[in-house]
Amino acid sequence: xxxxxxxxxxxGAIVTTAANAQQxxxxxxxxxxxxxxxxxxxxxxxxxxxxxxxxxxxTNKHVIQRDPTADAEDLSYSxxxxxxxxxxxxxxxxxxxxxxxxxxxxxxxxTDVAVLRVRGYRGIAxxxxxxxxxxxxxxVAIGHPLGSKWTQTSGTISNNSYETFVxxxxxxxxGNSGGPILNAWGQVVGVVQGGIHSSRTADFGIRSDVLLDLxxxxxxxxxxxxxxxxxTTELDQQLRQLKEERSALTAERxxxxxxxxxxxxxxxxxxxxxxxxxxxxxxxxxxxSDLDRRESDLLERQxxxxxxxxxxxxxxxxxxxxxxxxxxxDLVMLPAYDIEQEQFIPLRAAAGLYYRFGFVRNYYGEVESxxxxxxxxxxxxxxxxxxxxEVTVAIEFSSLVRFTVGAIVQEPDQQRRAVVPPPQPRYTAxxxxxxxxxxxxxxxxxxxxxxxxxxxWRTIAPGIALGYEFNFFRW
Length: 475
Prior knowledge:
By secondary structure, this protein is an alpha+beta fold. The protein is built from four helices and 23 strands. The radius of gyration is 45 Å and the shape is elongated.
């Protein structure tokens, strides 16, 4: 019994720590693992998959995808995949299993892995390699290339430096997708994804540790225990290798003890120097504390200076606000179109005198905009000559929007050939929008409306406003 326990322990150690020393027996791996590989068919095409437990089959998203040309971001939507009733799963024995659930891991759209849940499987499941396969390790792939069912090809791992893939030197074709890549112990080291068909070395598989993390996050059971046992000859060979490694380890331990003794001797010699270093370090630490205190004082002084500078700048701005040009003389021309009369008004010429306040300045203290309040006098001309004169009160906000309200004060009397007030009170209002608020030039849009004493609309005339403002009288 004691001998059996020791042998089991040796076998376990070999399987766990010396897996790469196992010479791959492709026939034995195929015979043991092929029954766990399934043939998957959809209305679009076919692919492979394999059992990780008695209920779940791992395959690729693109094997069960309705539109194989869709972007990865689109694969998070359920309509992108075939339903359970549209997917056929066939065992190597010829038995067909019913798919009861399709899980394409929609929260991981860029990982080309999906699982199918089935019922009625009584065979073994393939274990997963919990680490990354080594470059040069011999592997086999089992799948259905070009529809040839349960075909095996072999090769090696050619690159394992990618974040989620291993590069394969294994012959693969459409139909291998979703199938397992297996090591000598029957462990899945990757899931066939595909590659560049014009290249003989650019085939890739999704790493087993990536698959393991994904299954763990979704609570899907799996195993990592190998399913192909070594032969007696292989055990003898690997036991000899372990003995050689133990001898090398013993020699290394002896060398380690010698180096440790040498190190302790040097440490005893260096102890006075280390004590002196500790004293100097304590002195430097004290100096560092003093420098930190001085730096803190300097930072506090800088903060107070910044506060004083900010207060002075605010006072400067308040003084500069009072020194702005507080009056403005504006000249504006407004060609317009009378919507009610359906005629063009060639010119509405206005002159206004304003008081400016509410200055807004830029970083350099220059006035960019201001509010204004004043009086405008406007003369309107038609194609046949002078029409009327208006007097309005105007207010302007931020040199951008101007409102005016007033009355028509005089108009020509053609019969009497004289200038007279309107027979009934008539009022006018306008709105102007300046597209160049920071410039003394005025360019924008305007709209004028007029009404009678009953406040019924008589005319609405939109147009283009052009003008210039002369600012003066600063104190």
